[in-house]
Design a protein that fits this description.
alpha/beta, eight-stranded mixed beta sheet, 12 helices, Pimeloyl-ACP methyl ester carboxylesterase, monoacylglycerol lipase activity, AB_hydrolase_1, AB_hydrolase_fold
């Protein structure tokens, strides 16, 4: 499943793709990832659902212009516009990492309706951000000028740390590739520099208003966002369900793909 379509929005190009037939399911990726993470899951589900993949502006195959903000607010605005462009009414949404905050803001603040929401190891409520994040936020321009081989080594080590079991070289290459080159390298540090936790605070204040079915999945060994955050998020969302996936880290897509696929299909089948 390739992102062969382009949506022009506020000077940006948003790459997206669609496949299959049936109820609409939209996947949202996080940072520093892209729709590549969700591709095999979307392909498998396309037998029974119409699946949508997209790369957020500043990520993957979408445009990475330096003058465009890539914070939670901008991404939620882009997501709302893209859903309207697709003409979707209450799709199912499955989100990972940063995509959790984006999909929650789109629903809670912008008023876009969903049929259901599945949140997988998400950035959604404060506190968030690692020491690496804070360092980059203090030095984004300097790091953007690092020699390419040093930058690539940093990004590879950073992304590898999101997996509990370790990533194969070809999987790691696919996740690192969008952040290479003259456009990708500064974009990697820019998306961290634009990270603003106030959007998470706004989300947290509104979580009690959620009235749609919500399922939360969390890798039991997530070293980026501890399971305690998942449990606290469950407590803030009325009637939300939470399941931990054994022996999986933040990149549960690679650590436990069969368990994740089973959870997604079971959740969507009963909606």
């Amino acid at each position: 499943m390739e992102l062969t379509e382009r949506f022009e929005w506020r000077g940006r190009q948003i790459a997206w793709g669609r496949a299959g037939d049936g109820p609409a399911v939209v996947f949202c990726h996080g940072t520093p990832f892209s729709s590549v993470l969700w591709q095999p899951f979307a392909e498998a589900l396309s037998r029974d659902f119409t699946v949508y993949l997209w790369d957020m502006p500043g990520y993957g195959r979408s445009s990475k212009h330096a003058e465009h903000p890539v914070d939670f607010g901008a991404q939620a605005d882009a997501f709302a516009a893209l859903l309207a462009h697709w003409g979707l009414d209450r799709p199912h949404v499955v989100a990972h990492d940063f995509g959790g905050a984006v999909s929650l803001r789109t629903h809670l603040i912008l008023g876009v309706g969903y049929a259901s929401l599945m949140l997988v190891d998400v950035v959604a409520i404060p506190p968030s951000g690692s020491p690496f994040f804070r360092f980059v936020q203090d030095h984004p321009d300097v790091l953007g000028q690092l020699p390419a081989y040093i930058h690539i080594a940093i990004v590879r080590a950073y992304i590898q740390g999101a997996s509990h079991r370790g990533l194969r070289d070809d999987d790691l290459d696919a996740l690192v590739q969008p952040w290479t080159g003259e456009e990708g390298q500064p974009a990697f540090y820019r998306q961290i520099a634009h990270y603003d936790e106030r959007f998470l605070e706004e989300n947290e204040e509104a979580l009690g208003r959620i009235a749609i079915p919500v399922r939360i999945l969390w890798g039991s060994c997530d070293a980026w966002i501890p399971t305690e955050i998942g449990r606290r998020l469950q407590g803030l969302i009325p009637a939300a369900e939470l399941s931990l996936i054994d022996a999986a880290g933040h990149l549960v897509h690679h650590d436990a793909p069969v368990s994740l696929m089973d959870e997604i299909r079971a959740w969507l089948t009963v909606r």
